[in-house]
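Quick one, tokens below:
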């Protein structure tokens, strides 16, 4: 199985190539440079592996939630490559990919609470459990909320993501006791690739046109008319 994975939902930009369980990755924290980095990263990985893009079985992509422009870019890039190659797309939760970064910690029976800073005083959150295969599965729905609205999951909790960097004190207070926290962790394409490989085997693939971003926030921008109304209020 050969998958190309893209993740640009946060300030980190990364692309990974999955070939029969082996993963290579390009990763850079580069706010506002994602659009110029994704395709060169992909071309480098494919060239180094000695394959052609046409050898890929599918394109995997982080579907969000995250920064609106970053999520939209990742989906658009994945769709473009998939359409050009006539390949399916596998969409993966960016929060799930983030949660997978906590598997290096002792985690017997733990729940991972992934939190991404959503700006505007809010966080994107999701809870995940560990699987026997070393991956993660969602526990409940992903959500957009204020840190003070967060409810503590049962049992041992591990926190991960930029939400803990921005609202660390408040989230720690809500999650007492918190077994561990990784506030500097960002989602990576290598995690998208691992989760997508499992989904691909299960047949959880989409036609390129069906791949959709997940924003969680109902409205990501005000129209010009709404901005005018707001300024006059």
């Amino acid at each position: 199985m050969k998958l190309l994975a893209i993740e640009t939902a946060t300030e980190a930009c990364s692309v990974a190539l999955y070939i029969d369980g082996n993963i290579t990755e390009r990763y850079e924290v580069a706010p506002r440079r994602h659009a110029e980095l994704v395709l060169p990263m992909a071309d480098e990985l494919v060239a180094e592996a000695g394959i052609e893009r046409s050898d890929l079985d599918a394109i995997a992509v982080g579907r969000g939630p995250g920064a609106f422009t970053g999520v939209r870019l990742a989906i658009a890039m994945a769709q473009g490559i998939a359409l050009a190659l006539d390949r399916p797309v596998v969409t993966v939760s960016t929060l799930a990919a983030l949660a997978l970064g906590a598997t290096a910690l002792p985690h017997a029976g733990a729940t991972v609470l992934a939190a991404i800073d959503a700006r505007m005083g809010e966080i994107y959150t999701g809870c995940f459990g560990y699987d026997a295969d070393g991956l993660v599965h969602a526990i409940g729905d992903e959500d957009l909320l204020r840190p003070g609205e967060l409810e503590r999951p049962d049992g041992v909790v591990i926190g991960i993501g930029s939400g803990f960097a921005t609202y660390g004190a408040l989230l720690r207070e809500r999650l007492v006791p918190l077994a561990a926290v990784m506030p500097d962790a960002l989602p990576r394409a290598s995690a998208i690739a691992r989760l997508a490989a499992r989904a691909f085997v299960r047949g959880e693939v989409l036609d390129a046109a069906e791949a959709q971003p997940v924003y969680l926030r109902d409205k990501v921008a005000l129209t010009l008319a709404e901005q005018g109304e707001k300024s006059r209020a």
